[in-house]
Amino acid sequence: MKNASKKNCYAVFGNPISHSKSPEIHNFFFKKYGFHENYVKICASKENFINEILSFFQKGGKGANITLPFKEKVFLLCNSITKRARIAGSINTIKKYDKNFLLGDNTDGVGFLSDLLFQNLIKKNFNVLILGAGGAARGILHPLLEFECNIYITNRTFSKAQYLSKKFKKFGNIFSIPINQLKKNNYHIVINATSTSVFNVCPLIPSNLISKEVIYYDMFYGKKDTFFMNFCKKNGAKKVFNGIGMLINQAAHSFFLWKKIFPNTKEVFNFLEK
Ligand code: ATR
Questions:
Q1: 2-106 has which fold?
Q2: In a mutational test of the pocket of ligand 1, which residue from 156, 227, 246 has the highest number of ligand atoms less than 8 Å from its CB?
Q3: CA quadruple 77, 11, 94, 151: dihedral positive or negative?
Q4: What's the average pLDDT block by block, 10 residues per block, for the chain (274 residues)?
Q5: What predicted TM-score, i.e. pTM, was given to this entire model?
Q6: Which residue of 155, 195, 197, 205 sits with most ligand 1 atoms within 8 Å of its CB, as the best mutation to test the pocket?
Q7: So where are the chain's domains?
Q8: How far is the CA of 132 from the centre of ligand 1 (A)?
Q9: Other CB atoms closer than 10 Å to residue 114's CB: what's the count?
Q10: May I ask the CATH class of domain 109-245?
């Protein structure tokens, strides 16, 4: 069946959105599991996005992904919110039930952890250094703490790292640490959760802390290696990863919420690589 004859029941809302790979991933899942539905990207207006999302659901939309800059702002339109979305402080997935009842969920954190597990990059009790204390960092704290990792969080604006470490202390071992107190080889994995890769600028970590034993993971992805990935490789890192696996896995968890099927992520990975 051609796309034109399928209903646009699912969409990702963001601004900008042209770069999004979510339609490719979800349409792959829909086709593979026999759903004659389509997933599109919608560039919502910054002033009127609530009405645009509501109108999508009123016209037959069944589910949506929400991306920047709306993730923190869609709480208002959901009738119910999952615990993980409340803890993350943002919603990336909405499911419509009967009578326009909208459930807001967040699959970023669980998708991130699924990818680390799938790629065998994480173990219980690992020391994890997180660079950044914005929305992306916040979204991965709870799954990592629940998995019993020790988290060290640093940020350009240190007060934000302190705020998050205080807020998430009840879930496990989390410490805020100023950039100038970071020590070489104290961490098993370093996560770039800053938006530096979006703007293609230098990340926080000093070059003399980069080590070939440590894993470096950029939550961002692009066609080419990000600034952070290049920086780590240039300074001797050997285990360097981007966020494409996280993107695929968060999509798989959204698909599961909508369709109650957990899709095969390896296949879509191969498909995107092609
Ligand atoms: P996101 O939702 O992508 O996490 P955000 O909430 O705006 O976006 O957070 C951006 C993060 O990237 C913050 O931790 C920010 O640091 P500040 O809190 O000091 O602003 C970090 N960041 C952005 N640009 C940066 C840069 N040039 N150098 C270091 N950190 C940067």
A1: Rossmann fold (3.40.50)
A2: 156
A3: negative
A4: 69 94 97 96 95 96 96 94 97 95 98 97 98 96 98 97 98 97 93 89 87 96 92 97 97 98 95 86
A5: 0.94
A6: 195
A7: 2-106, 109-245
A8: 6
A9: 21
A10: alpha beta
